[in-house]
């Protein structure tokens, strides 16, 4: 039972961080919010226009047949950068969705920068 409690506490702390960060950032059509989600198996991201409530571009490691690690996060981010450029987006607001900025999340953000997207 203590493992289940530890996992629940970890998730509740992430949700707290998510709400705190989400209160101060928002996306527009010209500068959308990029929200990232990471599970133990997959990584996904989407560019969101919060004013209209629409998703402008998205990517998933599941669709690319990749799992979650730093090397694959770089590949997913490269594909996402292409999707963003196809939608005419070159500047974003990065929403780490409550995750700590290290490992896979940091590799994803750095790869977006390397592919010409301004954070």
Report on this model:
InterPro entries: Ribosomal_L18 (IPR057268), Ribosomal_uL18_bac-type (IPR004389), Ribosomal_uL18_bac/plant/anim (IPR005484). The protein is built from three helices and four strands. The protein has helices at residues 2-22, 70-86, 104-114, and strands at 33-38, 43-49, 54-60, 93-95. Helix 2 (70-86) packs across helix 3 (104-114).
The CA-CA distance between the termini, in Å, is 41 Å
Q: How are strands sequenced across the largest beta sheet?
A: 3-2-1-4
Helix content: 40-55%
Number of continuous helical runs: 3
CATH architecture, by name, is: 2-Layer Sandwich
CATH topology, by name, is: Nucleotidyltransferase, domain 5
Q: Report the top-level CATH class.
A: Alpha Beta
Number of strands: 4
Order of helices and strands: HEEEHEH
Largest sheet: 4 strands, mixed
Backbone shape: globular
Low-confidence segments, ≥5 residues, pLDDT <50? none
State mean pLDDT (0 to 100 scale). Answer: 93
């Amino acid at each position: 039972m203590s493992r289940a409690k530890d996992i629940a506490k970890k998730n509740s702390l992430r949700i707290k961080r998510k709400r705190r960060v989400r209160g101060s950032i928002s996306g527009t059509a010209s500068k959308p919010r990029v929200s990232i989600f990471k599970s133990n198996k997959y990584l996904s991201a989407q560019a969101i226009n919060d004013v209209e409530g629409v998703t402008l571009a998205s990517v998933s490691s599941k669709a690319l047949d990749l799992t979650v690690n730093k090397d694959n996060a770089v590949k997913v981010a490269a594909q996402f950068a292409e999707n963003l450029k196809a939608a005419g987006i070159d500047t974003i607001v990065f929403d780490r969705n409550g995750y700590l900025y290290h490992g896979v999340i940091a590799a994803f953000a750095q790869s977006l920068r390397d592919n010409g997207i301004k954070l």
